[in-house]
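Re: that chain you flagged

S.,

Sorry for the slow reply, it's been a week of failed gels. I finally had a moment to sit down with the sequence you sent. For the record, here it is as I used it:
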Amino acid sequence: MIFRIRKDPNNPYVMVNKQFVYDSHLSAKAKGILLYLLSRPDDWQVYEIEIIKHFKDGRDSIRAGVNELRKTGYIIRIRERDQKGRLGKMRYEVFEIPQQVSKDGFSNVGESNTTNIELTNIDDNLSRQYWDERIMEEKAAQRDHDLHNLNNLPVEDGTRH
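Prediction finished late last night. Pasting the structure tokens below so you have them in one place:
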């Protein structure tokens, strides 16, 4: 049973897509951090130091949770540049539904795909492994769904299997 407080217009609450809650690839820590981030206003700027202030966990624990969210595509980091093209601050984008990301959780938008990079980076390997597992799970679920539908097709005598 779930006990909820009575909804009141003067007491705001959060409405989120609950897909991440059931994502078995995420730890409880990562789910908590993601829920906290999704509870913030849409234009809220994400800073790790600000997240750390609102959790009992230490800096390293929060960073590990944020990195987990990056590897699984719930957070994408984008390095901004100033008007002269110099590297600037890091911008975080937070998603309710995971996005495919490139190496180290950075967005791959605008990157050339012409290089042949060896998979030596541990973070990149973990991210690829995560997505490979997720794709395999989705294919297995689709296959099960298709088999279920085949088993329920009518046969010539009008009955079902």
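What I noticed first: Residues 18-109 form a domain with the Arc Repressor Mutant, subunit A fold (CATH 1.10.10).

Talk soon,
D.
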